[in-house]
From TrEMBL:
Protein name stated in the entry: NADH-quinone oxidoreductase subunit J
Catalytic activity: a quinone + NADH + 5 H(+)(in) = a quinol + NAD(+) + 4 H(+)(out)
Species annotation: Solitalea koreensis
Pfam (any one): Oxidored_q3
Membrane topology category: Multi-pass membrane protein
Localization terms from the record: Cell membrane
Summary of the function given for this chain in its UniProt record: NDH-1 shuttles electrons from NADH, via FMN and iron-sulfur (Fe-S) centers, to quinones in the respiratory chain. Couples the redox reaction to proton translocation (for every two electrons transferred, four hydrogen ions are translocated across the cytoplasmic membrane), and thus conserves the redox energy in a proton gradient.
Enzyme class: translocase
Keyword Transmembrane in annotation: yes
EC identifiers of the protein: 7.1.1.-
Molecular-function GO term, any one: NADH dehydrogenase (ubiquinone) activity
Keywords assigned: Cell membrane, Membrane, NAD, Quinone, Transmembrane, Transmembrane helix
GO cellular component: plasma membrane
Residue spans crossing the bilayer: 6-25, 32-49, 55-78, 90-110, 140-162
Length: 167
């Protein structure tokens, strides 16, 4: 077994183990911390797949911004066991059915994966940020600039709406 395969299996174990701990943790803050570890394991997989840009964006966006937002919301809501509402049996039953369906899809995809041939990359430059930048700023320059103007106008609109509500 090569080092890449060993690293892949280690990261897969960490991702699966921490994702189970996200669901099973009693404390919501611990659950968020396990989710951050899961995101880092996913980033390791992206880097192994030669998708460095997606891996770095995963760390910045998910493990950075979204998890900090989750932590703030959890700490502001101040969950207590006494204030938690009782879930009806129908919700529990729907959750069990959904979990079973996800398990069936996972098993079917694993069986399909075992029967297929592995993908071999002919070009080792696939997924590099340099190539993404070339394509983004050559072929898609106009849509990129239009989207940036759209984001800027949305940000200015949000600031104006927030100002009107405060006055």
């Amino acid at each position: 077994m090569t080092i890449t395969q060993s690293l892949f299996y280690f990261l897969a174990f960490v991702a699966i183990f921490c994702s189970l701990l996200v669901v099973l943790a009693k404390n919501p803050v611990h659950s968020v911390l396990y989710l951050i570890i899961t995101f880092f394991a996913f980033t390791g997989h992206y880097i192994l797949l030669n998708a460095q840009f997606v891996g770095i964006v995963n760390i910045i966006v998910y493990a950075g911004a979204i998890m900090v937002l989750f932590l703030f919301v959890i700490m502001l809501l101040n969950f207590n066991e006494g204030t938690e509402t009782h879930k009806p049996n129908l919700v529990k039953f729907a959750g069990a059915i959904t979990g079973g369906l996800v398990l069936v899809v996972l098993v079917a995809s694993l069986q399909t994966l075992q029967q297929s041939n592995p993908v071999k990359l002919n070009n080792a430059d696939i997924g590099l940020v340099k190539n993404l930048g070339k394509v983004l700023f050559n072929e898609f320059l106009l849509p990129f600039e239009v989207v940036s103007i759209l984001f800027l106008s949305a940000m200015v609109g949000a600031v104006l709406l927030a100002r009107k509500e405060n006055n």
